Amino acid sequence: MTTGDDQSLDAITSERRQLINLAYRLLGSLAEAEDAVQETYARWYAMSRRQQDAIESPGAWLTKVAGRICLDLLRSARARRERYVGEWIPEPLPEPSQWTTGPAGGATADPADRVTLDESVNMAFLVVLESMTPAERVAFILHDVFRYSFAEVAEIVGRTPAACRQLASSARRRIRASHTPETPAAHQAGIVRDFRQAWQAKDISALMGLLDPDATVIADGGGLTGASLHPVEGNERIARHLTDLFAKAPGDLTVMERTVNGRPGLVAQQDGRTVAVYAFDIVGDHITHIWAVLNPDKLRPWTTV
User: Fold this and answer.
1) How many CB atoms within 10 Å of residue 164?
2) Which DSSP category does 300 fall into?
C-alpha cells in the first residue's frame, strides 16, 4: 500500500527530469545542471515537514528555486568564462541510447536524468543563448521553451512581468538574427558522412567543397588539450588545419557518425575513450560552423562503460 509520504516523495522526485531539462538549457552544461538540481532538492529537504506541506505546488516551488540557482550561476559564469583558457562551447550531449555518465566503469545514468533532445538544445541554438544576458536567457527559456507565464517568470527573475516580456522579446530578436533555413536531418547526415570520409582521406579539395567559404571552426579544450585557442576561419584554412590534425593523430583514432545535441555529428575515440565531439551547423549543401569539444571535463556523458 502506498502511503501519503510515498506519494509526496514520488511527486517531488518525478520533477527531476523536468528540472534537468530546464537547467541544461539555462546553463549549457550538464555537470552544472546536475549540481543546480541537486542544490534545489537539498533546499527542499532542508525544510521541515510543516514548511513542505504549506507549499501548494511543490513542482512550481522546485522550478522557481532551480531557476534562481541557474540565474545566479549564469551571472557568476560570465566572470569564470573570462578566465577560461581558449573558447568556451556548451557541453555536447549524446542521444539517449548512447547516454552514460560517471567515470569509466560507472553506472548508466537514470533515464530521469536524460535531457530531451529537440531544437532548443542543438549546438547552434545554445551558442546563441550564450550571447544573451542571464536575465534574457532565463526569461526566454522559461517562457518560450517551457511555456511558463510572464508572471511566473517574474517571480524567478525578480523583475516585473512587463520587464520579463521585454527580456524574452530581446532574446527572440537574437534568435531571429542568427536563424538559418532548416536543412533536413537526412541531408545533414549525408553531408557529415561525406565530411568524415574526406577528412579521413585527407582530401583537402573535397573538404573545401563541403565547407562554406566563410565557415568557422571553434575548438574548446579548456587548456587541458592542444585545441586551437582561436577560431579557424575560411574553407581552405579549415581544410588544411583539419587534415594536418588528422595526419598527426594516433593510428588508433576512430571517427564515428553520432547524434550530437539532436543533430548529425562526429565523435572521435582513442582506445575506446572519447577524445573529441564535433557538432555542425549546415545551411543547404555547406557546413557553416563546426564546434569541436575536446575538454575532457565536458565529455563525461560520452565515456563508454
Assistant:
1) 28
2) G
Please, are residues 221 and 290 in contact by the beta-carbon 8 Å criterion? no
Helices (H), the chain: 4-13, 16-27, 30-45, 49-53, 58-82, 123-130, 134-140, 150-157, 161-178, 185-200, 204-210, 235-248
Cα distance between residue 192 and residue 109, in whole Å? 28
Evaluate the CA torsion angle 41, 45, 50, 53 in order and state its sign: positive
115 pLDDT higher than 50: yes
pTM of the full structure: 0.88
Q: Which residue has the cell 538559418?
A: 180
The one-letter amino acid code at 19 reads L
pLDDT of 131-147, one tens digit each? 999 999 999 999 999 99
Report the pLDDT averaged over residues 100-107: 38
Rounded-to-integer distance, Cα 282 and Cα 186, Å: 12
Question: Do the beta carbons of residue 78 and residue 134 sit within 8 Å?
Answer: yes
| Largest CA-CA distance found in the chain, in angstroms, rounded | 69
**CA–CA separation, 59 and 12 (whole Å):** 7
Contacts (Cβ under 8 Å, ≥6 apart) of 259: 94, 95, 98, 117, 265
Query: pLDDT grade, residue 97 (50/70/90)?
Result: low
Percent of the chain with pLDDT over 70: 90
